[in-house]
Amino acid sequence: MDRLAEVLAHQQPERTARQEALEQCLEKLPEKSRQLLALRYEEDAPMERVAEAIESSAGAVRVMLFRIRNLLVDCVKYELTRNHA
Amino acid sequence: MTDSERQLVDLFLDGGLPESEHAILFERLESDPEALAYLAERSQLHVDLRRSFTRRKLQHLAVATAAMPSPGNSRARSPRSRMSWRGLAAAAAVLAVGFATLWQGKGTSPVIAHMRQAFGARWENCTLPTEPDSPLGPGRLRLAEGLATLRFARGAEVILEGPAELELIGEQICRLHRGSLVAHVPEPARGFSVLTPSATLIDHGTDFGIRTDARGNANVHVMQGAVELRHANGKAPVRLITQEMTAITPQQVLPVKRMEAEPRLPLQAGDSPAFTSEVSTRSGGGTAFVSEVRGEGGDRAPILFLKNSRTQTGYGRKVLFRFDLSTLPQIPNLTEAQLTFTLVPTGSGYAARANDAHLVAYALTDAAERWWNDRNFRWDQHPAFDPDPGRVDGSRAVRVGEITVPRGVQSGSFSIRDARLTEFLRSAGPRSLTFIVVRENPIEEDTGLVLGIAGNHHPTLPAPTLSVR
Fold first, then answer.
1. Among the partner residues B30, B40, B50, nearest to A8 by beta-carbon distance
2. Per residue in B151-186, pLDDT tens?
3. With contact defined as beta carbons under 8 Å apart, do B398 and B362 qualify?
4. Which residues of chain B does A65 touch, with a Cβ-Cβ cutoff of 8 Å?
């Protein structure tokens, strides 16, 4: 846990490029996935409320968010490599 | 890491991981670099997503407010237009906060907390800004004295009491290395966790106080609500509710007790009772320093100099304390003894050029009374003389304890508490007793700080004391 700050600090120089890559990746997401993220981050809604809003269960929302985030992480990595190439 | 473990990390970051499972996750993170790297990656994505969607929301609001009618158009407003005005005020507030967040966040670490206010705060060696209202990312705060209020991003408010060292890890987690804090945790921040050297405190929506030392002795007081304590010994968690307190040792969490009206926070939990008697070098004893520098030293000096150089010769200094033990009441079963002195800046040398100082106390086995005179304050004539400024003649003195003064510290009270000191005093009897204090490790740079100890002739600071029980 002591190394967390170190790891985060190490990632800082890429911040702007990463943020831009994330914006591009968000645009590539299906509308439904983007709406789910918006509920979670724009409204800062807890899992249960997100689940209510899309008429699903908290467990299902959790799995959906997990998959969307995995997609985003892969996409951001890809965009960063492509832009650096 | 398995997928389900990865999902646990996401759940934690989403605030959905039950508090009871935090400790398990922390243990996993502590022991697995891959898991830690995953948490770092996910935290970053979390922060980036929040930033991205905050910006999107601000754009929507800006568009919405631009499209609103002007307020003077209608005297009789409909409920809907009142809502719009409320909306506008909210939008303005969100815009202000949002822009500030975006501005502060640009090119810096993720903001996990803010410094709010400080009262009489003196900081040392912090890796984070300490100005009021500064955004704080992961890092360390070291508060030498005073109070400082921090607000974590999810709403937990922490008042740190100096001396203390706090490491900020995430929006919902920090590590108290030593010192005290009082926290108020509102509902959205439930699950806020404080790691200490021996246990993890997980909040269940409370006001609580916690104090720990670096060895893992701690006290916890719950003023309101409930907390859960998970000890590193792996035993079942202990729950504390309103008006309950407990002590934690490196081995275990002690039984929970009803809180006293006036919470006592001993610095070391499970501490033995206070010292019953003490004697100062001012009551019939004396203080002096011997120096290789001609014309320096003696027993009239208000500040006693202490130095040991690696390369430079002719600047060594050692300190002498004499206590008259006949003024101490006889204690048949002496269990502990402590030698305390106060460091004071000497104005000689640079703290920046110094390293940690290992100070060692020796008790003289010679009859001390005979030599406590001016002639013997000369460098090569002081008792147990050894030409090395970091040593004494081992045949005439015994080592009774040591202490490390961290780099950069030049003031404050320091105590040597050691079984060898207790043992020596048990056999010493009611007579005068002399200690020689040396800096064992040489200073790395000749221009480094010369340490000073307040002597009998210091106008304001206490002279060295010997406490027993």
1. B40
2. 999 899 999 998 899 999 888 889 999 999 999 999
3. yes
4. 10, 14
Query: What's the pTM?
Result: 0.44
- Do B42 and A69 lie within an 8 Å CB cutoff? yes
Confidence of residue B270 (pLDDT cuts 50, 70, 90): very low
Residue B456 in contact with residue B323, Cβ under 8 Å? no
Euclidean distance between CA atoms B109 and B116, whole angstroms: 18
Average pLDDT over residues B113-132: 88
| Buried-state track B58-72, b at ≥16 Cβ within 10 A, e below 16 | beebeeeeeeeeeee
What is the pLDDT at residue B85?
A: 37
Beta partners for residue B69, in sequence order: none
For the segment B51-58, the average pLDDT, to the nearest whole number, is 79
Tokens representing B66 are: 């631009």
**Cross-chain Cβ contact A66/B6 below 8 Å:** yes
